[in-house]
Specification:
20% strand; Hypothetical Protein Ychn, Chain: A; alpha/beta; globular; single chain; 127 residues; disordered N terminus
């Protein structure tokens, strides 16, 4: 039946094995709120290591994970291919200059975040 559907121009039903899910993990608490931030960043690294596409958004106090002493917790997620974003408003509100962030951290606006959230198949987790 699958061959008949393809021959008739009907698209095959997508399966989770065809494309990895895209995960948007939002860290809003930061390393100064306790060990949960580091655990959340490890979750991002684990998802990426398993082949999932992961973007980690640092928002509000979460941007503290991108500056010392929190920045070392980003090493593993970045090494495993996690795309790390920092909210531009949160960065500015905390007096952080974008040049003070690790080079791999991209400062983004909420319109960038909205574009990602609205893509089909994106899974959002907020911490």
């Amino acid at each position: 039946m699958g061959a008949q559907n393809r021959a008739a121009g009907v698209a095959a039903v997508p399966t989770e094995q065809q494309e990895p899910a895209w995960h948007l993990l939002i860290e809003s608490q930061g390393p100064f709120a306790g060990p949960a931030c580091a655990s959340f960043l490890r979750d991002a690294a684990t998802l990426a290591a398993s082949g999932e596409a992961v973007t980690l958004l640092l928002l509000q106090d979460g941007v503290g994970a991108a500056v010392e002493p929190g920045a070392p917790t980003l090493a593993d997620p970045l090494a495993r291919g996690v795309r790390v974003w920092a909210d531009d408003f949160s960065v500015a509100q905390r007096g952080i200059h974008p040049d003070d962030l690790p080079a791999a951290v991209r400062v983004v606006s909420m319109s960038d975040v909205a574009e990602l959230v609205l893509l089909p198949g994106v899974r959002v987790v907020w911490h």
